[in-house]
């Protein structure tokens, strides 16, 4: 999967709908471009279509209508395994294999890709440092880690083969407020250095404003608005106003990020 160009769309939805059965649509008429190197936050309440949108990107589900393009190629024309190995995936509670050590969890995709053992060990050490963990944790199991440590290992695993695209499905949602704030800051620092294309799912407006380059607001399987964080407070959209009233978050989150 090529990421040589930093311009243009890494991911594109063209009139995409997805339904489980006739009359049961989870996503309707989605048109959306996600640029290389940006963090696009999918914001919405439960059932708004956020996770379905993620699953369409790595072809865990196929569109009922329309096409999803990854690197200018429809997902239906990718080999699904090759597509998914080129996309990092981080979920809530990390989703680590409980019977694998930290080292084996992080090195999973490089092992499948048949990297040399020493290269995998070096990559694991490098990633532990990158996500703020000690190299001494390599032999531990997920049950021996705190929630924040497990989530950091999950991020490291997603980055292991250096994929150009990261999908993150409410990755910090199950953490306590202090740990969540720490990981949000670390994510911003990582993204400044790595410049991955990130699609980040959350229902938390403050998190969206803090982390997103752009915010795609979803409701009932439809895209309502796509806004930069600094545009949110000035939007006249009724649903945007509801979020601002519910969270009271725009000024503080934008200030934390240095947005005027």
Number of helices: 11
The averaged pLDDT comes out at: 90
| Rounded radius of gyration (Å) | 18 Å
* Strand order across the largest sheet: 6-7-8-3-9-10
Secondary-structure element order, N to C: EEEHEEHEHHHHEHEHEEHHH
Quaternary class: single chain
**Regions with pLDDT < 50 over 5+ consecutive residues?**
2-6
Helical content band:
25-40%
Please outline the major beta sheet.
6 strands, mixed
**Beta-strand percentage range:** 25-35%
Find the structural class using helix and strand composition: alpha/beta
| Number of E-type strands | 10
Between the first and last Cα atoms, what is the distance in angstroms? 36 Å
Report on this model:
The chain is of the alpha/beta class and about 260 residues long. The protein is built from eleven helices and ten strands. It has helices at about 50-55, 80-85, 100-105, 110, 115-130, 145-160, 175-195, 205-210, 230, 240-245, 250-255, and strands at about 10-20, 25-35, 40-45, 65-70, 75, 85-90, 165-170, 195-200, 215-220, 220-225. A six-stranded mixed beta sheet has the order 6-7-8-3-9-10, with helices on both faces. The protein has a four-stranded antiparallel beta sheet with strand order 2-1-4-5, with helices on one face. A hairpin with a 2-residue loop joins strand 1 (about 10-20) and strand 2 (about 25-35). Helix 5 (about 115-130) crosses helix 6 (about 145-160) and helix 8 runs parallel beside helix 11. The longest helix has 18 residues, at about 175-195. The chain is globular. The two termini are about 35 Å apart. About 40% of the residues are buried.
């Amino acid at each position: 999967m090529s990421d040589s160009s930093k311009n243009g769309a890494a991911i594109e939805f063209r009139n995409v709908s997805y339904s489980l059965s006739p009359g049961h649509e989870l996503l309707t008429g989605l048109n959306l471009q996600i640029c290389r190197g940006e963090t696009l936050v999918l914001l919405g309440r439960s059932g708004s279509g956020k996770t379905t949108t993620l699953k369409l990107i790595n072809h865990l589900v196929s569109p009922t209508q329309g096409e999803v393009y990854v690197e200018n190629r429809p997902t239906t024309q990718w080999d699904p395994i090759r597509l998914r190995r080129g996309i990092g995936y981080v979920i809530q509670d990390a989703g680590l294999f409980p019977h694998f050590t930290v080292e084996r969890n992080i090195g999973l995709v490089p092992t499948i890709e048949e990297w040399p053992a020493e290269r995998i060990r070096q990559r694991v050490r490098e990633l532990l440092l990158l996500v703020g963990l000690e190299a001494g944790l390599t032999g531990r199991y997920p049950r021996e880690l705190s929630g924040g440590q497990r989530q950091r290992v999950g991020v490291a695993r997603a980055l292991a083969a250096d994929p150009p695209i990261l999908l993150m499905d409410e990755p910090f949602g199950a953490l306590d407020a202090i740990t969540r704030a720490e990981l949000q800051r670390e994510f911003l620092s990582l993204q400044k250095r790595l410049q991955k294309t990130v699609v980040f799912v959350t229902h938390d407006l403050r998190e969206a404003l803090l982390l997103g380059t752009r915010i795609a607001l979803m409701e009932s399987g439809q895209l309502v608005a796509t806004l930069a964080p600094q545009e949110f407070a000035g939007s006249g959209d009724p649903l945007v106003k509801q979020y601002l009233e519910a969270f009271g978050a725009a000024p503080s989150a934008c200030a934390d990020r240095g947005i005027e």
